[in-house]
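Example complex used in Figure S2.
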Amino acid sequence: MRYANALSEKDTQELDQLYANIKAKTATVLGYPVAMDFDYSELYRFLQFPVNNIGDPFIESTYGISTRAMEAEVLDFFARLYRAEQGGWWGYITNGGSEGNMYGLYLARELYPKAMVYYSESTHYSVQKNLHLLDMPSIAIRTKENGEIDYEDLHDTIRMNRNMPVIVFANIGTTMTEARDDIRKIKSIFKDLAIHHYYIHADAALTGGYCSYTDPCPAFDFEDGIDSLSVSGHKFIGSPIPCGIVLVKKSHRDRIANSVAYIGTVDTTITGSRNGITPLFLWYAIKRYGLEGFKLRTERCLQVAAYAVEAFNKIGLAAWRNEQAITVVFAEIPKALCLKWQLASDNGRTHIICMPGITEERIDLLVQDILLTASHSKEETFNLIIKQK
Amino acid sequence: MRYANALSEKDTQELDQLYANIKAKTATVLGYPVAMDFDYSELYRFLQFPVNNIGDPFIESTYGISTRAMEAEVLDFFARLYRAEQGGWWGYITNGGSEGNMYGLYLARELYPKAMVYYSESTHYSVQKNLHLLDMPSIAIRTKENGEIDYEDLHDTIRMNRNMPVIVFANIGTTMTEARDDIRKIKSIFKDLAIHHYYIHADAALTGGYCSYTDPCPAFDFEDGIDSLSVSGHKFIGSPIPCGIVLVKKSHRDRIANSVAYIGTVDTTITGSRNGITPLFLWYAIKRYGLEGFKLRTERCLQVAAYAVEAFNKIGLAAWRNEQAITVVFAEIPKALCLKWQLASDNGRTHIICMPGITEERIDLLVQDILLTASHSKEETFNLIIKQK
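Predicted assembly (778 residues):
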């Protein structure tokens, strides 16, 4: 770095402090869906170069400093995993789940400009931001107790808007309870109401990372009837940089390509310059884990989740999880504990997510903290629950 | 990485091949606006952690593994550089220039839903993709020979649509010739036509990285009258991962915050999860270069650009550049050369961009290649130009 000085002592201290702080915080994450057991040090050498997977990953570029070949391999891995038709899919590696959701909704809007979007009330708030940005009309649908979309309410609501094409934004793992909307049930509603113009986008941000390896496996993928899917890369696989994969039916993407062709480009990605480092991370993880490794990792997470449910219930804190979910839900605990363990709360509930890297020991530490806090807490209900035991 | 195997021999070879390929390609970049002289190895240790600057950088989060404090410092640096009103700006670090442009246009649409967008025909194609996504009506304006917007055509066209609020998407450095639209001249058109409802977004992707350090400095920043600005981080400063900064007038952002408040969030960023590593890179670069280092780096680029113009003209290849620009424009050269030196072409013209890291020696190598090719080329016009000399 010519014309640059070494970092000042003060700045070095600030950096070291940040490092120590981040390290400590990583040791007490329990409420966020991020894997912590990754190691990409073998790839750091690529950070010397201005890597950029600019534009459509499948269209050649004059810019040679890219990891496009690896990106294509990653996409192919996920297309198979999600049972997309061979040769019938298209996609790219995004900057995170939200971008993939926006892309899916954008495609849906281009196909059905006059459609109504339906999503459950458990949907992540970023989706409403996306809908606002894309200027798409939408209706929120009630959820069942477990966070899954209420199919009856969905049926009734679509029935009242039968004149409009239907776009369903389905959650394959809601943020709070990791509930999965059942694509086959949704499709049976369309059949019942003779809806022929519809589009289903699956937001599989966290759960899409592993649910293909579980038995039973939810009805969520291309063979089950979706049109597009977004999954995060930094969640189940793990990455120091947010990333994700969006996959869509190729025929849909081709139609959008036509509609932007007057611009003189066939690049239908949302961004121009694109991260070429995260595709490399994902490629590396896929090569090193393989299907077998991902399956073992999944089983381990489910094991820890089962352990956590039992541990919480044992001390009188009623906890539960959806079938084959790694998210454990329980009543909100005192704020200081939520802060320390970085637990997000919503409507009097909170959760831990048993991501790769989280062990029974970390669950035990939280349980100890809960017991300790309960014995000193002024919050009566909280006291009561624990003391009842 | 538990449950992971070591990389297979085949995969290791593929990775090593990629490394060698990227290294070689980096040595022959001349046509893309990416700095190559960065070194962030001191920061690689942060890649062990699931860093995420989720949501609005100025709103506290329960997620602690972030570099928000550094992000705020970076934003403050650029807000001062672009003469934003103290306390009157807001912004965040994006995944690249396009995202910042989309954010600026989104804000403009929220403020003036019935406006017409004007942009010059030299505008990057991603902007039209953004306008399509945001569903905003727009008109392309003619450009002058040097790539700058034709103020007369802009004046006439706005005059014919005086009933609509005006959104101008201004280029501070076009992709091909690095032409800068003059914000003061644009504002004088508004004054002349008594347009009171207007919004100016500045796309300063490359040029915004350094033009504040040149004399004369183009009319392009908040004091000159813009409402929002997008600049890339991976271009002039340099980064192995695309990134950028978007800055907007705080009052505009607050209005958008109100319009999405029904969603129950004050997070107005487009994405949810956000990269926390690139803010650290930018922070590090700012600390190490300082204003003085950036100024010296700028002068060096201008020096190489001046050298290139002279070197091309000396061999009979007519080359020119805009005032204080580091982009040198000349007639398209044979395809094999464009491929080797990664030069993008448009309408019979091509360019090199004298980014930090590019030296006179690299220019000399290109000149040698041109002479060598000319002596063997079957392309008559090309031959003619060079042989005339």
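The domain at 42-287 of chain B is CATH 3.40.640.10 (Aspartate Aminotransferase; domain 2). DSSP finds twelve helices and eleven strands in chain B.
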